[in-house]
Amino acid sequence: MPVITFANAKGGAGKTTAALILATELASQGHRVTILDADPQRWISHWHEISGPQKNIAVISEVATASLQCHIRENRGTTDYFVIDLAGARDALVATAIGLSDHVMIPVQGCAMDARGAAQILELLKQLDERAGIRIAHSVVLTRVSSLVTTRAMAAIKALLSARGVTVLDTPIGERTAFRDIFDCGGTLRSMDPARVSNLDKACENARLFAEEVLRLLPLRNRERAGRGFFQTIRRAA
């Protein structure tokens, strides 16, 4: 049961949208998904409240540093994938979630502030590696990408990040009406009315390709990260 965490020390980078798109797409494919909503804004919890019960999706809203590992341990028997949505911060909860992850997704829009927030997460990952030998796989996902952004411009962005040793997903998350409306209407992309949501088919295809690429990055089995040394490192890194 891999743990996929969405992190950027800056708010508004598209973490919550990316986390919900991935979770609902995995659930629609038949996977059991538990979302740990550790963002104080609780947007995913609100989505869950207005959506009602959703097949293959469970949402846990009360997530703290002390309870995070317990939530994962207690729900592993009924979960195929854990998805963690974090606050735009760098604190003990963020550090703990990252340390328990199999893959950290770092959403970034095309702005300097998002890049600085991403750099803080990358520095935290580096500290976990150097201080505790905990190497967490991670990737950047470009978010809210406008259709006006050319393939050439996207390639330039990816090349810049790759030159710094950062893996960038081939599938960016586009700026789609459906990705905004899902938080207002509830449900999933597949339950939306295509007559009321523009380019819903393109949004669904974007979600499918994003989920497929994320799954290809995951390890074959979950790694266990526990013990006093790990949590001492987490406290120092935060």
UniProtKB/TrEMBL annotation:
Gene3D superfamilies: P-loop containing nucleotide triphosphate hydrolases
One Pfam family per UniProt: VirC1
SUPFAM superfamilies recorded: P-loop containing nucleoside triphosphate hydrolases
Domain of life: Bacteria
Signal peptide segment: none
Protein known as: AAA family ATPase
